[in-house]
Amino acid sequence: MDAPVAVPDRASLAVRLITLVAIVLPLLGLVAAAFVLWGWGFSWVDFGLLVGMYLVTALGITVGFHRLFVHRSFDTVMPVKVAFGVFGSMAVQGDLITWVGVHRRHHQHSDTPDDPHTPHHHGRGLVGWLRGYWHAHIGWFFDPAPADLERYVKDLRQSPTLRAVSALFPLWVAVGLLLPAVLGGVISGSWAGALSGFVWGGLVRVFLVHHVTWSVNSACHLWGLRPYASDDHSRNNFVFGVLALGEGWHNTHHAFPTSARHGLAWWQPDASYWVIRGLWLVGLAWNLRLPTRQARADKRR
Description:
Largest sheet: 2 strands, antiparallel
Strand order of the largest sheet: 1-2
Order of helices and strands: HHEHHHHHHHHHHEH
Radius of gyration: 19 Å
Number of helices: 13
Number of strands: 2
Helix content: 55-70%
Structural class: mainly alpha
Oligomer: single chain
């Protein structure tokens, strides 16, 4: 077992404010672009394609890659596993097996130097914290896969079907970009509509899903609330609880990593759990893993 590593002190207020600005500004820029282009470069069709593709691919990450494949927080039939494997791949965050391996490693070494996407341990002072933010938000994506990654994904490697889904990652990326283009062209009846669908439902959607889901790695380890005891700096953040479809309740998730539900309180929206619950209601999901009342009380700060 690895020796415990001290978690750095919380970032200063200035650093957390800079992080907030770095996350919020691109989102505000996207909203501003939509308003400026409304009527000639952005339409209700584009809006529908952007939101629809965002939900499909983000849920592919949150419900599929994360809660189903990484943490096995519920069981389902293989066709559902394949569907979520494809939807998650369309988010363009890496193939299924690599994504799962990196995330399992993150949980084993959370906020230690061996954590593949911690914002900590990147130097002291403002520059160190900014380097850490960049690494946690997007920089880790360009790092080579850890040499021991295979030991984290032995269960997925045993399934020929899931190996095939993972190996076909480039195909799913292409489908995720071409599908909104085709829909935009068919709905509008024009090539301009196809191009606009490709831009908003494809390229812009990829940016938005990346920015929001990777903000969980960065922002939710820097600012928010910590209602439960954990050995890291994971935090619950309401904004990303909404935008990341429940993934922003990050401290709760690190306290109960195998839970199918991250937003445990009635006022904590968790769209990903609502989807899982819906699958359960129609008999397509079972063995939903949830923390008991006593387990929650034991870890309450």
